[in-house]
Amino acid sequence: MELLVLNAEEVRKALPMEQAVEAMIEAYSQLSTGKSQVPLRARINLPEVDGIALFMPAYLEGTNEFGMKFVSVFPNNAEYELPTIHALAVAIDPQTGRPLALLEGAALTAIRTGAGSGAATKLLARQDAVRAAIFGSGAQARTQLEAICTVRQIEHAWIYSLDRPGAERMVSDLAGAGPIPQSLEIAENPQQAVQDADIICTATTSHEPVFDGTHLKPGVHINAIGSFTPQMQEIDSYTLSRAYIVLDSRDAVLSESGDVLIPLAEGAISEGDLGVELGAIAAGLKPGRTSEEQITLFKSVGVAVQDAIAASRAVRRAQEVGLGEMVQL
Q1: Residue spans of alpha helices (H) in the chain
Q2: pLDDT band at 73 (very low <50, low <70, confident <90, very high)
Q3: CA–CA distance from 17 to each of 46, 90, 158, 188, 314 (Å)?
Q4: Separation between Cα atoms, residue 152 and residue 224, nearest integer Å
Q5: For 124-160, what is each residue's pLDDT tens digit?
Q6: How far apart are CA 90 and CA 181, in angstroms?
Q7: CA distances (Å), 246 to each of 140, 221, 278, 291, in order?
Q8: d(CA 184, CA 155)
Q9: How far apart are CA 280 and CA 246, in angstroms?
């Protein structure tokens, strides 16, 4: 078997953020209009090390793209000087079932997750949004910032992270890079980050809300991407009760995310508040933002259509420009 292998840097070159955002809009649209096959992801919990392994296949019928991804999230990996997330993605030929390519999945995951928020920001955030707040300073936080700056003219962004050295590296590495403004600043506290923000992205592994919803200004858009277990909660119940809530996948969010499950259990929101998927907005079936003062919130736990389409598009681009290495298995 001959297989194309793309390392992390090659994945980043093969999947520029602007193209990734458009791919996510397509993926979400197919997901919400019944043009994809996406089983709920299989999960293995490793409680002794607080680890989770996920296995995610998907087929996009509308564009004939097929793939799967393995990802592990082990929050204690810093003790071993290893990344929190390890992942591999496989692009598969939908005509023959032959594996076409193996892609470093952490880079792919960071790009597609950022691009998912970029898609939500493009469809939901105010057009005049210029100030941002990013919670977290890891790989996911970095692509969140890149994505929102790709779809809106961000002039200033606050970075808030419990990992101060990580936040300092993020500012040093990203200030002025590509669409990201030179004006990046570390916030001393969550209120400083959010009180003037037009767009907020949360990309942490927190089990408690990372900011107080009473500090939000009208019209803010929030991308909440960190909570992917019922115990994790980045966004407080008060914020959910005020917001127009948009989901990547209703089934997946109701199965996995404490950001939604905890406010539901508290009675702050009802399941009737959770009827809108981003793909339905992308397909023109549901409205997006309905007023300049409305608070919009995109809750994402990640869905396999994102990985399948991202891998497919990255492989296509890599083949066009000669990236990667062919290996025999």
Answers
A1: 8-14, 17-32, 105-124, 139-151, 164-174, 190-194, 237-242, 250-256, 258-266, 278-282, 304-321
A2: confident
A3: 33, 20, 21, 29, 11
A4: 18
A5: 999 999 999 999 999 999 999 999 999 999 999 999 9
A6: 34
A7: 20, 11, 6, 15
A8: 9
A9: 10
Name, in order, each residue with C-beta under 8 angstroms of 126's C-beta and a sequence gap of 6 or more.
198, 219, 221, 289, 292
Sign of the alpha-carbon torsion through 241, 247, 253, 254: positive
Looking at residue 136, its pLDDT comes to 97
Tokens of 13: 């070159």
The count of residues in the chain is 329
140's tokens = 């996911």
Kind of pairing, strands 131-135 and 244-247? unpaired
Share of the chain above pLDDT 70, in %: 100
Contact call for residues 303 and 248 (beta carbons, < 8 A) = yes
The answer to whether residues 40 and 255 touch, using CB atoms and an 8 Å cutoff, is yes
149 in Cβ contact with 119 (< 8 Å): no
Residue 140: which of 219, 226, 248, 239 has the closest Cα? 226
DSSP 219: T
Side chain identity at residue 326, one-letter code: M
Both tokens of residue 117? 């928020």
Encoding tokens for residue 19?
A: 């193209």
| Tokens at 43, concatenated | 């999960």
